[in-house]
Amino acid sequence: MSGKKDKVEMAEEESIATKTEEASENEISLSEEELKALCREHVCPACDVMGEAKEERLRALADAENVKKRLARETDELKKFAAESILSDLLPILDNLDLALDHAQNLEACKDFVMGVDMTRKMFLDTVAKHGLESVGKAGDEFDPNFHEAMGVEQVADLPDGSIAQMMQRGYVLKGRVIRPAKVMVNKLD
Question: Where is this chain compositionally biased, Basic and acidic residues type (predicted)?
């Protein structure tokens, strides 16, 4: 039996070899443009496979565009608030300059000193304002929990109810973002 199998297998191998030789003799050489044209002719534009491939390509392009936009937004945000930590570290210096001015304001002997501290404070405020830092809240303004932190209530007759009666500590905003809320006393009329 093994002899018959060997003969059959040999005949099949010869047949395959013959077909391969014939195919290589009949090979047609096509340029790349001709090959692309043939492919376009044989692919049906309404074919599901082509439609799915097109949708997948469009989704990939949309995802790439979304990633590009998100990275641009994050980069802009990073640039906009890059100085936030440094400016928030400088706020105690402004607080101390304000305290020095408040305590020495009525001392006649320290008039030149007060003027120097005031000039330094103004220069400091001008410098940080160039980077987008602004102070928020002053007595008489309406209390806004987005920018103010209520420390208590006071009763001041000439101020409207719900307004700031007294500033305990200045608040600061960097380009619209609260760095430190202002600590205030809120006017409460009975």
Answer: 1-10
What are the residues whose beta carbons fall under 8 Å from the beta carbon of 53, sequence distance 6 or more?
none
Cα 54 from Cα 39, distance rounded (Å): 16
| Numbers of helices and strands, H then E, in the chain | 5, 6
Show the domains of the chain with their CATH numbers: 84-187 (2.30.22.10)
Say which amino acid occupies 90. L
Strand boundaries in 106-163, DSSP class E? 133-136, 148-154
Question: What mean pLDDT is reported for the chain?
Answer: 82
Query: Can you point out the beta strands (E) in 44-155?
Result: 133-136, 148-154
Place of tokens 């006017």: 187
Q: What is the mean pLDDT of residues 134-156?
A: 89
| Torsion-angle region of 149 (φ positive above 0: left; ψ -120 to 50: alpha; else: beta) | beta
Average pLDDT over residues 97-115: 84
- Closest to 151 measured CA to CA, from 186, 179, 187, 188: 186
For the question of whether the overall pTM of this predicted structure is more than 0.70, the answer is no
Are 179 and 135 in contact, with CB atoms under 8 Å apart? no
